[in-house]
Specification:
Keywords: Membrane, Transmembrane, Transmembrane helix. This is DUF3558 domain-containing protein. There is one protein chain. By secondary structure, the protein is α+β, with helices and mostly antiparallel strands. It has a single domain, classed as Protein Transport Mog1p, Chain A (3-Layer(aba) Sandwich), CATH 3.40.1000. The protein has five helices and seven strands, in the order H-H-H-E-E-E-H-E-E-E-E-H. Strand 1 and strand 2 form a beta hairpin. The longest helix is centred in the last third of the chain and has 16 residues. It is globular and about 50 Å long.
Length: 217
Amino acid sequence: MSVPPYGAADPGTPPPQSRVFATTALVVLALVVLAASGLLAWYLLTSGGERGDFEAAPECGIGRTEVLDEIVPDHRLEVEETVGTAQDTFGTGWQCRWATPEGEGASVPAAATLVLVAAPVEGGPDVASGTLSSTAQGHEPEPVDDLGDEALRWVETGAFEVGCTGVRVSNLYVETCYTAATDYEATGSVDGESAAEDAERLARSIVAELPEGTAAD
């Protein structure tokens, strides 16, 4: 799921538009992937399967961790939108984006996104697993140990490299993505692998805050 100008001479003097950045480079791609995985989700749901623990996805507030404060200094919540409807077989939840604010400031521009989607309780773990694999597909994902029930980390290349981590916890899909400029002029982004490491750190901090399953017995 993913949602990218300046000019300056002295790096010690932030340019007036230093934060307009390529945060418009962090386009939320996962929504397209979720919609595309609807047929698979329908098949998994109608085939039965394990019962999930989450009736609803947590809201964006769960993403405001110390790690977010560290990797996106002085962040502001720019996107807080619902994902999916009752008719979407992949489930429903939230997409969120934080970025350094526009205007002058001491921090190099950075942005992070968070997607939280709870698949339907019945058969939901299989659906969330399918969402994870389909989202990471094509990005040469690497497995991440000791994070949720299963997790993958990958890099999305482009004008700015974006690092992402996707996690399944029962029937809940959690995805974090992160990118940052290397300077106030946003002439380039941090290395994708480095961004993926920070996305993983953010994901771990969020998973640690998840409430215990909320699904009724």
